[in-house]
Amino acid sequence: MQSTPFRTPSPRVAVIGAGAMALALAAGLAGGDPPLRIGAVLARRPPAAPAFDGMAVCADAAGLLAWGPDLVVECAGHGAMRDLVPACLAAGVDCIIASVGALAEPAVLADVRAAAERGRARLVVPAGALGGLDALAAARLAGLTAVTYRGSKPPAAWKGTPAEEACDLDALERPAIVFEGSAAEAAARFPRNANVTAALALAGLGPEATRVTLVADPGLVANTHRIEAEGAFGRFVFETENRALPDNPRTSLLAALSLQHAVLNHVAPLIP
Ligand SMILES: NC(=O)C1=CN([C@@H]2O[C@H](COP(=O)(O)OP(=O)(O)OC[C@H]3O[C@@H](n4cnc5c(N)ncnc54)[C@H](O)[C@@H]3O)[C@@H](O)[C@H]2O)C=CC1
Ligand SMILES: O=C([O-])CC(=O)C(=O)O
Questions:
Q1: How many Å apart are CA 165 and CA 163, to the nearest integer?
Q2: Cα distances (Å, whole numbers) of residue 29 to 189, 209, 264
Q3: Could you tell me if residue 7 is inside a domain?
Q4: Domain of 102?
Q5: Which protein residue's CA is at the shortest distance from atom 16 of ligand 1?
Q6: 176: closest CA among 153, 198, 199?
Q7: Cα–chain-centroid distance for residue 41?
Q8: Does some domain include residue 46?
Q9: Could you tell me if residue 3 is inside a domain?
Q10: 247 C-alpha to center of ligand 2: Å?
């Protein structure tokens, strides 16, 4: 038998979405050691970037499933997560998702859970642009008392969001709070900027009790995420300053790398 660095000889990995994160994921996996080529993409139109060359292009969930993936990575948006991921899970295909914010809606979480149970498949929720969720999920087992999150991005990253109603993004001279509330509300109102708050809520205190502050800061070039957590375990503070992807100022490179790591974790026998 041919030797392979993966658990199966040729893992069949597909991606939903062909935007900034899918591009970074495809290029990252193909350039890795060992290289792993994503074989299929579900996209609204055939993607032009060379990173997608050679991939089967699918138009819908039926086409994707007909290609025969053993792993699907969603990086398209809340609508794609809600509409496409349950079908993949119900068909027995494991999924890794970027658009975690969709799970802050209890009905969507229930739907996805039921589909995964029906298909005996696994939904993987990566930390995305955040870090520290392994510690938070472990700490939760002994009880958490408070989890707060503060996410700060340059004004350009908040364009086209409700932050435009909170301040004049083009005229900001100092940091402005554009949202304060629960993770549930943050994930729903900022579907392209606050998926991390839903991942934090799932790992910790849930969508209502996780407190969120979102900030537009003209002094920043990086997307900054700060978590503070307290509970029976003690206390931790985790902060990361993330470079954005070249094709999307809202999305951190670390979010794409987190998906890449989750894919490798799924296909490799051992990965640190
Ligand atoms: N968990 C995390 O830390 C993060 C999660 N995200 C999530 O990842 C998503 C993707 O991020 P980017 O690649 O930066 O966004 P992007 O806007 O660059 O790309 C999204 C792509 O998905 C496509 N798309 C949308 N709905 C689709 C559908 N139903 N079927 C097929 N294609 C569809 C769009 O046409 C676009 O090409 C975001 O919308 C957000 O929900 C983004 C950043 C961080
Ligand atoms: O990439 C980031 O920094 C976070 C983000 O957009 C999200 O959670 O939706």
A1: 5
A2: 32, 36, 8
A3: no
A4: 13-129+254-267
A5: 19
A6: 153
A7: 17
A8: yes
A9: no
A10: 14
10-residue block means of pLDDT along the chain (272 residues)? 76 97 97 94 94 96 98 98 98 98 96 98 97 96 98 97 97 98 98 98 97 98 97 98 94 98 94 80
Q: What is the CATH number of the domain that holds 164?
A: 3.30.360.10
The one-letter amino acid at 33: D
Q: Is 195 in the pocket of ligand 2 (CB under 6 A)?
A: yes
Q: What is the ipTM of this complex?
A: 0.98
- Nearest CA-CA partner of 202 in 177, 184, 227, 225: 184
pLDDT at position 2:
52
Residues 108 and 137 in one domain: no
User: How many helices (H) and strands (E) are present in the chain, helices listed first?
Assistant: 9, 13
pLDDT at 49: 94
Strand partners, 95: 72, 123
Q: Kindly state if the Cβ of 252 falls inside 6 Å of ligand 2.
A: yes
> Which neighbouring-strand residues pair with 238?
227
